[in-house]
Fold these 2 entries.
Entry 1:
Amino acid sequence: MKTLKFAGRYVLRHWWQYLLGILALYLVDQVNVYVPEYTGNIIDGLTEQTLTLEGALNIVWMILGMGAIIAVGRFCWRFFIFGAARSIEKEIRQDMYGHLSTLSMRYFNQHKTGDLMAHFTNDLMAVRQLLGMTVITAFDATVMMILVLTQMITTVDPRLTGVSIIPLLVIAVGDVFYGRMMHKRFREKQAAFSTLTDQVQETISGIRVIKAFVQERKELYAFAKTTEATKEKNLNVVRLQALMMPLMDIIIGCSSLLTLLYGGYLAIHGEITVGQFVAFNSYIGMLVWPMMAVGECITSISQGTASLGRIFGIFKEQPDIVDSAVTDHSITALSGEVRMNRLTFAYPGQPDVPVLRDISVTIRPGETLAVIGRTGAGKTTIPSLLTRLYDTPEPGMITIGGRDVREIPLSVLREGIACVPQDNFLFSDTLQNNIAFGSADKSLESVIHAAELACIHDNIAAFPEQYQTVVGERGVTLSGGQKQRSSIARALMKDAPILILDDALSAVDTDTERNILDNLRTIRGNDRITIIIAHRISTIQDADHIMVLDDGDMVEYGTHDELIANAGLYKSLFDKQQLEKQLREEHPDQDAEGGAAHV
Ligand code: M5T
Ligand code: MG
C-alpha cells in the first residue's frame, strides 16, 4: 500500500500528461470501432446495389478521415504517456541516487553493489513499463472491450455476440493462472540478473587479484554458470509466453468457427445482413487483443509492483547517522582539542566484540597524535568514529573543542576533518579534479601547491598530460605510492583543522616520507591537529603523542623517547624495524623500496 502511495506521488505530478494521453487513447478506440461498421455498409450497399458512386466516395472519405484521426491520436497517446513514464523513471532514479548517498556505512556493508545497480536498471525499467505501456494497455483493453461488445450487440446481434465470446472467456480465466506463473518466473529472472550484474562488477573491480592468482579460467567457468542460470530463467519466461500464443490461436480459432457457423446460419436466414456478418468477424478480431492484453497487464503489473517494492525498500531505509535534536547549529567550524574519553566501541552486528576498549587521550591544537599497532588492532576505527561513519555508544566519548561529535553539525564535522583513508580511492577523472575533489578552490595553482606538499608534483609533471591525466577506474594507471600521495594532496587541499593520515605513507619510500612529514609540520602550524596512523616507526617517531594499540587496548602511550625507555611493545617493534633497516643497508639490492616489516 505504501509502495503504491509512493508511486502515486510521482504519477500525480504528471497527471495532465496521463489525462491527455488517455483522452487521445479513448478517441482512437472510439474511431477504430466505427471502421468495420463503415466497411460493412459498403459491402451491404454493393450487394443490395443501392450504393451510388457518390455515396461510396463519401464513405471512403470518412474512412480516410478516421485513419487520420487514429494516426494523430496514436502519436499523442504515445507522446504523453510514454513521456510521463520516462520522466517519472528519471525522477525516481534521481531521488534514489540522492537518497542512497545519504545512507550510512552500515547499509553499504550489507548490500551488494551489483544488487544496487540492478535497482537502477532492471527494476526501474519494470516500473517504467508499468507506468507507461501497462497503463495504456489496461485502459485500452477495457475501453476496446466495452466498445466492441456494445457495437456487436447493438449493430449486429446479441445472441451471436453471446455465442462467439464463450471461448474468449476461457482466455480471461486462463490469464489469472498465467499471471501467477509469470510473476514467479519473473522474480527469479530478476534475481538472476542481480547476481549477474554483481559478478561482472566484482570481476572487474578484482581483475588484478584474479590475474595475479591466475584465476581467469575459474572465474570464466563461474561466470558461465551464472549466465547459464540467467539464460534458464529467461527461457522459463519465454517458454511460458511461447506456450500462451498457440493456445490463444486455438481459442480464437474456436471463436471464429462459432461465429462462422452461427453467424452464417443467421445470415442465411436473413436475420443479419452479409455486411453485418463481415463486420462481426472484424469485431471478433478486435476482441482478441484486449483478451490477450489482460494477461500482459497481469504480468507487467506483478513485475512492476515487485520492482517498485524493491525500489521503495531503498527509500524506506533511513540514514543512521544524521543531525539530531542535540545538534547545535550555531557551530560553524571545528576548533579546540580532540578528546577521546574512555572510548569503547564495537561494530554494529558484533556488539560483544569491542574493537576499542577504554581509550582516553587528548590532542591539543598544534599537536600530532600517532597511532601504531598490529593489523586489526582498531586503528582505522578511530577516524571512522571521529568522522561519524559510525557513532560511539555513548555521548562524550569523543569531543572536539569540548563538544560531543553528535552536537556538531555533520557537515561541519566532515568539512573540518581531512582524511586520507587507508583504501584510498581515485575517481575516473583528471588528476586535477581528483585532487581538488571536495575543495571549493579548484584552481591549478592550488592543486599544484598541494601536490608539491604531498611530493607528487614531480611525478605528475612528468606525465604527458600532467594534471589533465585521466586516471583509470580506481586509478589503475598510477603506482600505489603515486595513488597514496595524490590522496594526500587531496586531503591537504582541504586545509582542514584536523588532518588524518590512515596508513597513507605505507607505499612511499622513507626519503619521500620524510619530505612529506617535514612539509606537514610546516603547514599544520600550531593551531591544527594531525593524526597519523602507521605501521612504520619512522613515520611517527616525531609525533607529540604516540598511542600503541593492541587488540583494542591502548597498551602504551607517550613520546618516542618515553616509549623506548618503557621497553614494551613499541620498543620491540623499534628494534625489529631497526634490524631490518640494517639488513637492507647491508644488502641494498634485495629490497630497494623501503617497506619495513608490518607490525
Ligand atoms: C579493527 C573489525 C576488524 C578488526 C577490528 C572496518 C571494520 C572492522 N571490524 C569490523 O568488525 N567491522 C568493520 O566494519 O574491527 O579494525 P580496524 O580498526 O580496521 O583495524 P586496523 O586499522 O588497526 O588494522 P590495519 O590492518 O589497517 O592495520 O578486528 O575485523
Ligand atoms: Mg586500518
Note: The longest helix spans residues 216-268.
Entry 2:
Amino acid sequence: MTSHRRAGWTRRSVAARAAALGTAALGTAVLGAASCRSALAAQGSGLASHAARTGRLFGTAVRSPDLTYNAGTRDEVLREASLLVPEYEMKWEILAKSPGSYDFGGGDRLAAFAERHGLDLRGHTLVWHLALPSWLPRQLDAREAKRLMEEHVTAVASHYAGRVQSWDVVNEAIDPQASDGMRTSLWMQALGPDYIPLAFAAAARADPKAKLYYNDYDLECDTPDQDVRRAKTLEILTKLRRDGVPIHGLGIQGHLQAGRWPYDAGKFARFLRAVSALDLDILITEMDVSDRLLPAPEAERDATVAGLAGDVLRTFLAEPRATGVLTWGLSDRQTWLNDLPTHRRTDNLPQRALPLDRNGRPKPLWTAMAQAFDAATPMR
Ligand code: XIL
C-alpha cells in the first residue's frame, strides 16, 4: 500500500476519520452490553474458531464508535474474532492533543469491551512517521527526539500494561527507495536507525509482559521493491536480536492488492523461515485485499480476492511460528480502502476487501481464510 504514503495522507485523515466516526461524541457512553458470546468465539463457528484449531488467533481492527453504536458490527466482532486492535484510538495524534496530556478514553473503551467479552487486545502503534500530533515539531535534535519518543512510549505502554498482549512498537521504518533502506522519518533524521532499539527498550521497561513487534507492509509479493523490503526487514530484525533488544515478533501488515503484483509462494516461505530462524513469532496484522484494479463484477472480484488471500495464507500458515491473522476491519462497510483517492476504485464502487460483505455475510474471502486456517501447520 505504498501509494497512500506517497499521496501523503496525513494526520488530518486520522483525526478526520475519528471525528467523523464520533469518537468525541462517545463521552462516557459504555460500549454495547452485548452478550458474552465472544469469549466463546474460538469455540464457535467464526474465523477465530478455525484459527484456534491449530492454536492461532484471528482478530480485527475496530473503532470504538462502531462497537458502541453499531450492533451489527458488535455482533460480527463477537462472532468472528478473539482479538481486537484499535484502528486509530492508540495513535499519538488521537491520544495526545497537547504535550504530555493524554486522553486514553477511546482505547480504554476498547480495552473494557475486550475484557468484558474475553477478547485479547493488541496495541497499535507506538512509533510511526504518521498520525503524529500537530504540536510535535517535525524537526528535532537527537536529545529532544529521544526524550519525546521515550516519554510517549512510556506513557502509552505503561497505561495499557497488563491489558495489551502485544504492541506494534515501531511501524513502517523501511523505504526501499532509500540508499540505506530506511524511511527518512522524523525519528530517523533525529536519531538514526538507533531509534528502533530505543523504542523497543522503552516499551519493554513500560510493559515487561507485552510481546513487542516490528510492523511493516509490502513484504508478501514478488517485486524488486518487496525483495529489498524483505532483506531490510531481516537486517533490522537480525541486528535487534544480536544486540539483545527486547523484540518478540514481526508484524506483516498484509495489505494485499489483487491483480497488481505476482506472488511467489517459495519466496514468501523462505522469508518467513528466515524470520522464524531469528526465534521470532510472525503475525499478519492488518490484512485486507484491495480490488481497485479488478473489473467491476462482484463475483469476479470476490473470487480473485479470495484466490490471492488463500495463496498467501496457505504459505503463511505453513510456518509454525505464524501465530495468527488480523484483518483491518471485518465487513466491507468498514474498510479504509474507500477513504483515499489513491486506494479507492476509479469507478468509485465500494471495495470488497474484507471477509464479510456490507451486510455482515461471509464472502469467498471468508471461506478462503477458514480453509487456510483449517489446513494450517500446527504451531511450534
Ligand atoms: C489507517 C486507518 O485505517 C485509517 O482510518 C487512517 O485514516 C490512516 O491509518 N498501515 C497502518 C495503519 O499501520 O495504522 C493504517 O491505518 C493503514 C496502513
Note: The chain is about 40% helix and 15% strand.
